[in-house]
Amino acid sequence: MNSVDKIFAPALDLDNRLADAVTWEHGGRLWPSSEQQTLTCCRVVDETHDIKSFEFRTADGLPVRFEPGQFMTVSATVNGQRVERCYTISSPPTRPFLVSITVKRVPGGTMSNWLHDNMKAGCELRAYGPSGTFTPTAAPATKSLYLSAGSGVTPLMSMTRASIDLGLNRDVIFIHSARTPADIVFREELARLAKLSPRLRVFFVCEGVGDESDWQGPVGRLSLQLLSQWAPDYLEREVFTCGPAGYMSAVRGLLAEGGHDPARYHQESFDITADVAPAPVAEKAETASGTFTVKLSRSSRTFTMSASDTVLSAAKKAGVAVASSCSQGVCGTCKTKLLEGSVDMKHNGGIREREVQKGFRLLCCSRPTSDLVLEL
Ligand SMILES: Cc1cc2nc3c(=O)[nH]c(=O)nc-3n(C[C@H](O)[C@H](O)[C@H](O)COP(=O)(O)OP(=O)(O)OC[C@H]3O[C@@H](n4cnc5c(N)ncnc54)[C@H](O)[C@@H]3O)c2cc1C
Hints:
Blueprint: H1 3-25, E1 36-48, E2 51-58, E3 71-78, E4 81-88, E5 99-104, H2 110-118, E6 124-131, E7 143-149, H3 153-165, E8 171-178, H4 187-196, E9 200-206, H5 224-230, E10 238-243, H6 245-258, E11 265-269, H7 283-287, E12 291-296, E13 302-306, H8 311-317, E14 335-340, E15 343-345, H9 353-357, E16 360-362, E17 366-368, E18 372-374
Parallel strand pairs: 7-8, 7-10, 8-9, 10-11, 12-18
Antiparallel strand pairs: 1-2, 1-6, 2-5, 3-4, 3-6, 12-13, 14-16, 14-18, 15-17
Bound molecules: flavin-adenine dinucleotide.
The site of flavin-adenine dinucleotide has 25 residues, from strand 4, strand 5 and helix 2.
């Protein structure tokens, strides 16, 4: 521990506890991830040529409780089809009357283009409550290293904004990678926040200079040399990474090469098809046979399903409308209370242990091992 850390360590510990207590656990309306509500768009901000932020207030005007780094699942009818997608809340929980999402336009993408083309101030959007475990409270640390690329900046931005709002002066090194300087999301705000908080250090690396021929920063990709230069103590830092699958795989390679402890590495994948284990199939399920009955307590409906199918897929085949998004056990949108029976669930981080203890399961990655009653 260097002398600066010795001075700040007790304060930071208090900061962590304060932040956990004041910001995330108290205040604000509990908005479960299984519950939809209507949000009203207050503002649209052009962040870069293909990224916009959409700021929303709730219909009841009550503040929303969430943790920095969490996402919400938005739902819209696009070309006659109901579409659901997850977006990280880029605003901090310290401004709980507002939830904003920052969306990159994906070529050919359904929801991102619909939001960019249709969502304006005054428009409404349905969304499920906050969810996700990519939060600093999941891995409290006195020294962090935030690594992001492209729209992957959003969870780290919420964490940074929250920490600055509370005056925590946390020791954070934030390195963001972009294609060109014009593609750096939140460029001015991050630079301003770094001036406000001496222990927040922000660095940008761009693959090319684009139209900004006087770009002073490094050109290329994040390398071990750059990392060691900007964060010489990176081995001591809790690392939070978010970006495209290829970027995160490169970052993991760099950190492994440098000897960083993988237990102190945390990542959020936006790309549910590329960087997440395929929808886990229970070993038993491959040979599982038989048919089970599923009863839905709210709608009083009943259907039968094969033991080898996921509950979500069987429900959809039976014509039951279940909110879902990733189908990979990541996003948590299909979280449902299991009232009776048992399932074999193999998730990818989309549900917390305490939710499992309370009887919730993710239907997209759960296969029945008995007849079931679901709170649906
Ligand atoms: C936890 C989480 C948080 C996220 N947070 C953010 C965030 O903060 N900001 C953000 O911008 N994104 C975020 N995402 C990603 C977001 O959820 C969407 O995946 C993204 O916006 C693309 O959705 P889309 O509907 O526009 O694209 P989709 O319609 O899902 O298409 C995705 C890709 O598939 C291609 N495609 C679509 N249909 C076809 C077809 N028939 N044949 C071949 N290819 C096809 C498209 O061209 C496109 O390249 C997050 C994802 C997760 C899981």
